[in-house]
Amino acid sequence: xxxxxxxMAPLKLAKNINLITxxxxxxxxxxxxxxxxxxxxxxxxxxxxDAQLEIDDNPWQVKIDSEAVKVQQDGIDKTLNGIxxxxxxxxxxxPLHDLIKENEDDLAREIMKASIGGYDLDEAHIxxxxxxxxxxxxxxxxxxxxxxDKEYKEIIKNHRELKNKEETLRNLETDRNKAKEASHLxxxxxxxxxxxxxxxxxxxxAIQKDHYPASMDKVSGEELxxxxxxxxxxxxAEDDIHLAENSIKKENKKINDLQISGIEISETIITNLETxxxxxxxxxxxxxxxxxxxxxKHEERCEAVKAIDESLDPLEWARLDLELVKNxxxxxxxxxxxxxxxxxxxxxxxxxxxxLDNFEDVPFExxxxxxxxxxxxxxIKEQETKGDLPVWVIPVLALMGAxxxxxxxxxxxxxxxxxxxxxxxVFYALQxxxxxxxxxxxxxDFKDLKLPLPSKWNLEEVTLHINVLLELLRKSKIKNxxxxxVRQLNLELKxxxxxxxxxxxxxxxxxxxxxSVPNINENDFGSLYWFIRNARDWQKAHTAxxxxxxxxxxxxxxxxxxxxxxxxxxxxxxLQPVNNQPEAGAQFKNLKKQLDTKKETLVNxxxxxxxxxxxxxxxxxxxxxxxxxxxxxxxxxxxxxxxKDLIEKLEDxxxxxxxxxxxxxxxxEKENELKGHSLYEELAETTKNLSLDEIEEKVEENEEISGNxxxxxxxx
Length: 716
Prior knowledge:
70% of the residues lie in helices and 3% in strands. The protein is built from 19 helices and 4 strands. It has 716 residues and is mostly helical. It has helices at 28-39, 96-100, 104-115, 121-127, 140-210, 223-256, 267-308, 322-357, 366-382, 393-411, 418-432, 440-449, 459-514, 525-572, 581-632, 640-676, 680-687, 692-706, 709-715; strands at 48-55, 58-65, 68-73, 76-77. Helix 10 runs parallel beside helix 13. It has a 4-stranded antiparallel beta sheet with strand order 1-2-3-4, with no helix packed on it.
């Protein structure tokens, strides 16, 4: 604490009021404050105090390290007792300046009061009714004084008795202090005895532990099992190493048995072999395709000869010009087209001529017949004002007649459908009509047109005659159209004649260019065409056959060259040469198989070597662990009996170690209790060489003295 760098001298405080005086800055306030902090430790931040005090003859030790406070009695943590509560601690520290800070008169009054025993004379004068008047002995006051005097003497007597008792009490206090001191010493020597006993026990256990081997702390109890496991692992690793080495020997023998065992075949050689083999395959396939095509073309030549005449020599047909054959195709197509057209025109003309023969009974011109129909329609219209017919009938009949006539003239017989409407209207009109009408004018018109007249001039007959005329109109129209078509056909046949003449001229010229054709009539266009067509097919097949023959020979020569190159590459691989493409494929397949076998075998060898290294590492690791166990236990390599002996001692060693640890803990605890005793520092030096028996004597001696403490306390 600031102000006490070297600590404080021991203080003995009175039971009531203690005054601390001294000049300024002499430490009065610091002394008061440290006493207060030791008794009531609060707000101790920054303090560092180690104090010893007695309360009712009981020693206490207080240590303050900033805010950490430790209070002990005889080395045991306790709380101070026999002191006022902390809440009122401020009442027990009263600096002088607090007394005089307001009115210094009060200080004089307090000092005077304290000097006469703490009485207030003025207040006593009032309370005792003090009087300055002198009274005689008979006064009541004297009687009271006499009584008080007796009482006083009695008190003096009692006081003497109290003095004697006080002496006795002082003696008892002395005896009690001795008993307390003995009790304090008893506790110290008792703690010292317990510490000494714990020390002897701990030392004895340590000596027993030292008798065990130094490696016992490293024994776990699993070493023997671990040694057995490691031995098995080493044996298994040795077996695996043996198997792996044998497997590697077999794989090496497999490689040595290969034809390519001692040869390093590059990827370039393999690529060239694959290329050459592909060329051989392509050439062989091409030759096979050419043979198939040759057979096909030979069959085509035979079919062409069979189609003409097998007795003929087809080589003579080689002189035919293919361009000429092309012209023949065009000529034949043109001839068939013109002749077909001519036949069609003539057939149509003959058919139409037969139809005209059926129309000989129709001598009238269509225009005249149409005009007759119009005349009869006009006649019917004229009857409108002469009969009882409805006004609308005549116009409608005239209109329908005109429409029917025009429709028949334009569309033919379908236009006659209008007659049905006309007949219906006429029938209706006949029912309403009763008077004949004049028809002389119409008869003259019909005679001029040379048309037949109606049998009677009435609406019924005239209507029927209109129908007859319409039928004549239809037939005359058909006859007229047929005549027109016949004239058109004659014109087309006439126009076609030059083309026919040209065809005949071309035919003669073409035969002259071809020459004689066996067994073919000059006018037989089809056979001639068929002969030339088949001859052309034979020529094409023959030309293709010869071309394929040449290409096949060329491919066969290329095949021979490729085989030479392929065999040259095989020789570099220490393999036998081949004679054809299938042998080349088989030999290359054999090479690939050997390469794959070699590659696979090398991989197997690599894997086996890796496994072999693993097994060797495993064996090495197990061996090192085994050696480490023997080294750790300080036992000869392979001495399992020594390891077993250590393991058998392990349980007793553990129990001993635990007991030693417990004894050390107890020793430490007893040492802390001993050092925590208030007399330790005072008696440590004088008691360090005492034996256990001497300490026990001290314990018994002080126990006997302190045993009277309770009795003395009762007497007091």
